[in-house]
Amino acid sequence: AQSVSQHNHHVILSEAASLELGCNYSYGGTVNLFWYVQYPGQHLQLLLKYFSGDPLVKGIKGFEAEFIKSKFSFNLRKPSVQWSDTAEYFCAVSSGGSYIPTFGRGTSLIVHP
Amino acid sequence: DTGVSQNPRHKITKRGQNVTFRCDPISEHNRLYWYRQTLGQGPEFLTYFQNEAQLEKSRLLSDRFSAERPKGSFSTLEIQRTEQGDSAMYLCASSLSGQGSNEQYFGPGTRLTVT
Q: How far is CA A45 from CA A37, A52, A106, B60, B104, in A?
């Protein structure tokens, strides 16, 4: 069974700091990769996804993620965070033939103004 | 708002009681998923429908849990004889087949507290 690891459970940053959240998965075949975000009091929403093609994926609100197949990683980055980025971030992976993603346990990001 | 909706948003019940939750997916979406999320964890897959057919169930889905999607539109998740360990957020998501990446859209969830 595949698994997803998010190494940073809690991250605290000041505004304008750079962000990188780690995500590693254990499946060796074709994968679809996702980052979801959950803002306080809101439901999960898709931040970005990788399906195929360019391994550097750009999402909403200035976020991007890079798929490195050799490292089984899909790290999320943002060059300059804002207070409004305070949220829970979840990495998710589905194997090529499955519609069911496996989620990591999430990273709580707090951005101080 | 044409997103995924779930009712009720909160449910408090006593141990041993039965509860039922409802999910209304995005209208054109033919796939519907149920997840459970506990504090400090990501969503865990419970079951999945394509139209009215329940195609996959997780081992997490014990015999006390049952889900239906009778007309391929809304879905219900019933928990019988609730236990305190059932306390969690129950999430519903929907997606449209034919999208290669199977992007799922989530509802706000139903928070269940079993006392």
A: 5, 20, 13, 24, 9
Say if B102 is an interface residue toward chain A (CB within 8 Å). yes
- The verdict on whether omega for the bond into residue B8 sits within 30 degrees of 0, i.e. cis, is yes
- Three-class DSSP category at B50: strand
Bridge partners, A110 (sequence order): A12
Amino acid letter, B46: L
Q: Per the CB < 8 Å rule, is A106 touching B41?
A: yes
Taking the CA of residue B74 and the nearest CA in chain A, the distance in Å comes to 19
The CB density around residue B63, as the number of other CB atoms within 10 Å, is 7
Question: Could you read off the pLDDT of B73-111 as tens digits, one per residue?
Answer: 999 999 999 999 999 999 999 998 876 657 899 999 999
Gap between the Cα atoms of B92 and B32, Å rounded = 7
Chain A nearest C-alpha distance from B48 (Å): 8
Residue pLDDT, tens place only, B68-78 = 999 889 999 99
Phi, psi of B24 (to 5 degrees): -110, 115
Is some CB atom of chain A closer than 8 A to the CB atom of B43? yes
